[in-house]
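Self-study notes.
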Amino acid sequence: MNRLQHLTALLSLTVGSLHSHAQATQTSPLEIADATETATYPVTHIAGLSGTTSNLKGDLSLSQTALRFTSAGSHVEIPVSHIEAIFIGDERVETGGGAGLILRLAAPPLGAVTQKSIDLLTIEYRDEDGGYHGTVLAASKDVAERLKGQLSSRLTTDDGAFMPPCQNEATNPTAIVLEPIAVSGVQLPAEYRALLYEDLVAKLHQEAPSTSFVRAGDRSSGPGCTAMTLKLTVTGFKKGNRAVRSSTGPVGFLTANTSLSVHIDLTDSSEHTLISAGASSNNRIDRESLDITSMVASRVSKRVVKATSTLESRKKVS
């Protein structure tokens, strides 16, 4: 099930709701004491928020020092001083839950009627160890704009770009640092950039759980330098329209598709190239456009894991 199908089922109850899983109580290591709360807003965490899970409905509040996300089984805080940037985007989602989906499938021309636009709030921040995160939240338009306005005035410029997770010491032979997503020659909405990074982190951990994948800037990886650096550069992007795809059939699948292309650069600690190749995917079917980041991340992760496995095999032979 894709990340916004959950939103389809709950949108008729709360704008921005995605999916409510039974959660074990979790507490982020970024918790801080602060009693000066402002208003609380209903949002849905799509991905990237450290200390909780994806597709989780909850409440977001902003105090003088922290942004707080609270749900039935999760409580996470991000110090405002850790937030680096905030953006607003939008996405079309199905309304009416299962009834809306059935109505559209029965009468495809109603696809545009049974869908509506929601706002996506993208927040780039560092965790307590300096690791980069791209968080995406679904919210109503007025909530997204209000939060962006309140946060933007408090952001500070960070002079120290992404600090390397090593200081010229012994190399950790199984560690790969994941640089933030770069963009070249195209306009890429912030939510796609953030989701591509978070999807890549998740897919790599799934494909190779024994390998250490380190977020950019993470100081908790230990004293050793990472053996490799992975960087994705987005070279092509087209944001399609699911409403058009769903309402016009085969023609829409071709003309309203979402596509994403990246260039993969994997280098070792001596900056020797291990992978320099492209990867891309097209979303032509009746699914959410945001799913394109997961599709591309899956292809990239398989290629990276294959290359690193081959490298390890060669080292053992030699």
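Second protein, same conventions, sequence then structure:
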Amino acid sequence: MTSMFLMSSTSSNSDHYPAMKTGNISAGEFKAQLGLIAWLDDFDFDAKCTVQSYTLYYTPRRNDPVTLQGVGGTFNGKINQVVRQAKSGDQYAFVNVKVKCPGDKAGRKANSLYFKIR
């Protein structure tokens, strides 16, 4: 099984950041995230996967959702812009996440992440 997390500048191991999987998060903490990372669960070593693509549904408070397509694990361009402008009440859904893990010949689907800014 593959687990997805938000990636901050201090992320190094999925066991250290269980709160970054999904849920409520402060605007400051969310803005500090650099992208998405993925690990294979239940391995004796860190089996880090490469994020290939995802869809971000960004819903600003009291506005219509915006759909953005992401490529790679690092937030770039418009996705980086909407992450950096996170405010209380905004919602972010990272769905249709595709990753490639060690030994994979092709990408695989990973779990979605949902965040509400408090």
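Instructor comment on the second fold: The longest helix spans residues 77-84.
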